[in-house]
Automatic annotation (TrEMBL), chains A, B:
Alphabetically ordered keywords of this record: Oxidoreductase
GO molecular function annotations of the record: oxidoreductase activity, acting on the CH-CH group of donors, NAD or NADP as acceptor
Enoyl reductase (ER) domain location: 22-334
Domain of life assignment: Bacteria
Signal peptide: none
Membrane-crossing segments per the record: none
Organism: Leucobacter komagatae
Protein name per UniProt: NADP-dependent oxidoreductase
Cross-referenced Pfam families: ADH_N_2, ADH_zinc_N
Amino acid sequence: MNNERSTQIRLARRPVGWPVHEDFETVTVDYDAPAAGEVRVRNEFVSVDPYMRGRMNDVRSYVPPYQLGDVIAGAAVGRVVASAADALPVGTAVLHQHGWTDVIQADAAKFRAIEEVPGLPLSLRLHMLGMTGLTAYVGLTTIAGMRAGDTVFISGAAGAVGTAAGQIAKLLGAGRVIGSAGSPEKVALLTDKYGYDAAFNYKEGAVRKQLANAAPDGVDVFFDNVGGDHLEAALASMNDGGRLALCGAITAYNTTERPVGPTNLANMITRSLSMQGFTIGSHWDKLPEFTEQMSGWFGAGKIAYDETIVDGIDNSVDAFLAMMRGANTGKMLVRIGE
Amino acid sequence: MNNERSTQIRLARRPVGWPVHEDFETVTVDYDAPAAGEVRVRNEFVSVDPYMRGRMNDVRSYVPPYQLGDVIAGAAVGRVVASAADALPVGTAVLHQHGWTDVIQADAAKFRAIEEVPGLPLSLRLHMLGMTGLTAYVGLTTIAGMRAGDTVFISGAAGAVGTAAGQIAKLLGAGRVIGSAGSPEKVALLTDKYGYDAAFNYKEGAVRKQLANAAPDGVDVFFDNVGGDHLEAALASMNDGGRLALCGAITAYNTTERPVGPTNLANMITRSLSMQGFTIGSHWDKLPEFTEQMSGWFGAGKIAYDETIVDGIDNSVDAFLAMMRGANTGKMLVRIGE
């Protein structure tokens, strides 16, 4: 068990609006051999997620803000390369929340061993078989109460949560699934690969009109990753008794202006709509149910996925910014080489 | 059974913004003796309600719009004065939906006999013991899932629904009930007569700041009759897991501009909030439960109420407009004399 150098991305100052590289700093840490009870993990994939932008602000939220000097915490998968803990021998694949670093050494209790399934890459634990998939599943079931036959509209449908949500909605019996995305290529992917019944490019015209065209009989369930004009369009198209699950509002994360609220919230009353915001941290109790369902679907070859890979821990910030701008299809990941 | 003349207020044209007298017409109808199965009812009290403004517009909503030439339909209570229907003999007190008229003659099936309770005026069937009370009850229980100990904020608290909601919240065990109203007199009434723990005048300062002062530990349930800055203020003060019942948005009913939505809807996500709009028409199944509860509270002397009375069917439009401007305390009613 030799010493090893870890490269870590830390928060240097709080971003205002769109983050810039100067808001982060790259620090190296040299680890000695693990102390009793510790393990050393080399990451294979590190996740960059929209919710991280919120944690960079110093405001009350569902997860505490990052402190200046903190490593950007978040999900990552890797493998134990040195161990002083019997529970996690060298070679064990693990999931953890240590975030933007290539190597991390810490108490073994901070890592969770994950079962490796032949043919399924570890990275899936960071999206379809992990938090992202669970978010899509909980949003559709627990939050929106989706029923068979429902027309479901998913904004930001070509992203990590969206590609999961569209497929899960169809597998759970949705009558019609509609998605929005930001390029013609993504729109084509939604209908050709992900089973969406209709999709449109929100950059090509008013969302409200494009959604009305795609959902002539109205929308029963809206799964929102975007906010802004997508939420307003959904409110305009909702059927009586419709349910809106608010998962994200990426349009608002990097703006310094106060976001404009939808002008048609009165539809909440006249159409008896329900809107519920959620974050996955309150719903980990659904993980076993989700894992069983999703593993079954994977086993049956029913789940497609995409990964957009950026190589090298030094490019984490770029990967994060690209994801926030919608450059990814499916899950954006940072891959850590040897 | 002599002939009798009925005075009726009908919709003459669709209002734009605030209704004006020219949007209505007064028509007289001479009734012959009731035909078989018909009764004639002289109204004692006619209700004017905020939701009527929506029905004056020609837009899709939960109740069909009034047609031009229609009597303004709505709740009224009166007494049978001529009858050709065994089920409703002369003298029976009835509740019906024929609206803005002093005398109405129609099929007996269109009227519901109501039990008269000594000491309780018939007019209560139009508010505390009727739709208004039921609206408050359903909003707090079915929609907002109020729990004992909750801090509850009610906007437009001195109105018909608000005076009911505040008392019901306390009787159901709310920990702290806060109300907003539009005059110092109403604010005093909320705390002195209606049992509110705190109240403020929304015309005296920013709602957001006044609410934050009145609810230092945050708000668990918001019962909204107002919309606009009240909704934004509530979103700012909601505790994690808070529930918002949207009952009305009177600020928006008479504006010709597109209403501005709340700028802080993102709190729905970060605080796991639920917002549900409702109209009472979908919740009549709760009427027996509500009636039993409310009758018990009345019997125990636990319910206060106010009525703001305007005399004469010819003044219905004025009563309606005054109610929309907040001139009423408690329930606004049109009283029909002999």
